[in-house]
Structures are given as C-alpha cells and as structure tokens.
C-alpha cells in the first residue's frame, strides 16, 4: 500500500494505492496523522489505485471523516473501482462523505 499526500490550495488530496487491509490500516493512519495536526476544510481521497479494501480501512476512513467533520470540514472520495465502491455503498459511507465521479469534479467542488 502506498499513500501520497498533496496540497492543492486549501484542499488536501490523499492518493491511495494497493491493498487496504488490516495490515496496512496502521500505515494509512500513521501517514495521515501529521497532516491532520492542522484541521483541513476539505480532504479528498483518491481510491483509483485501490485493489482491495477491508473493514479496517473503512474504519480508518471513518475516523478521517469524523475528525474532519468535528473541525467543520468535509471528506470526499473519487476514483473508486466498482468493486471498492460497492463495499463503500453497502457500508453506508456515501451518507457521511461526498462521492465524486472523478478527480476534476472533486478538485472543483467548493463547499
């Protein structure tokens, strides 16, 4: 699993690739921890490179949503392959975050 963090103006873009499972969830959390020291108004997570996601990483994403929401921000996702999006939808996550069809929409959306 690889996590890249980019700043696009005030927006934080988190690019994730590989398998997101019980073994990699702590890596995901550790990569984001320093960045979250400063609350962000918007964070978008690029899931286009994700091959697998487990409940452990859904929990990590939920923690990101809760932290960002507690500081008045919003999390969004884009690029999830259909099998990953199905897991996200079944888990009810679209009601907790913004879901964008692609990167351009995610970067251009202003809340």
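-> sequence recovered:
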């Amino acid at each position: 699993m690889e996590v890249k963090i980019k700043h696009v103006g005030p927006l934080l873009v988190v690019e994730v690739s590989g398998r997101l499972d019980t073994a990699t969830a702590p890596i995901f959390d550790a990569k984001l921890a320093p960045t979250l020291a400063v609350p962000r108004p918007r964070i978008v997570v690029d899931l286009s490179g994700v091959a697998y996601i487990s409940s452990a990483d859904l929990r990590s994403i939920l923690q990101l949503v809760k932290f960002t929401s507690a500081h008045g921000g919003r999390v969004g996702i884009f690029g999830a392959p259909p099998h990953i999006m199905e897991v996200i939808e079944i888990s009810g996550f679209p009601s907790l975050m913004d879901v964008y069809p692609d990167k351009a929409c995610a970067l251009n959306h202003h809340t």
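Residues 55-70 form the longest helix (16 residues).
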